[in-house]
Amino acid sequence: MKKMYSTKMINTGGRSGEVHSPDHSFELNIAAPGKRVEDATNPEQLFAAGFSACFNSALDLIKTQKNIDGASTISAQVSLYAESEMSFVLGVEIEGSVEGLSLEETQELLEAAHKVCPYSKAIAGNIEVTLTAVEN
Fold first, then answer.
1. Are 62 and 98 in contact (CB under 8 A)?
2. DSSP letters of 30-59?
3. Whole-model pTM above 0.85?
4. What 3-state class would DSSP assign to 20?
């Protein structure tokens, strides 16, 4: 396997702290989920951002293979669930649309993209993911 890219982020303060790249070109304040803190995000939002972008790129790959030109939009909703007082899990709901395709055609593409998306592969069998085709 050939490494194509690697990145690193550093956190101090956990969910009430900050994250930054080693060269400080990317810095974010972190807040606990559900807390509104100005100019802050949370790990679930970051995961949703990364997953939606990665999934849409995987979908683009599938569309290219099938000669489909319609633009696609992907949303990833990441939820945090408490299994118990000390155990938490994530769940992900992916919604996607592809211009010019029916819901059935789009659903097929979403399922194909889920098989090649690195984020999907990373969490396979670990958390629940639902895929839903939606109108543009």
1. no
2. E--TT---TTEE-HHHHHHHHHHHHHHHHH
3. yes
4. strand
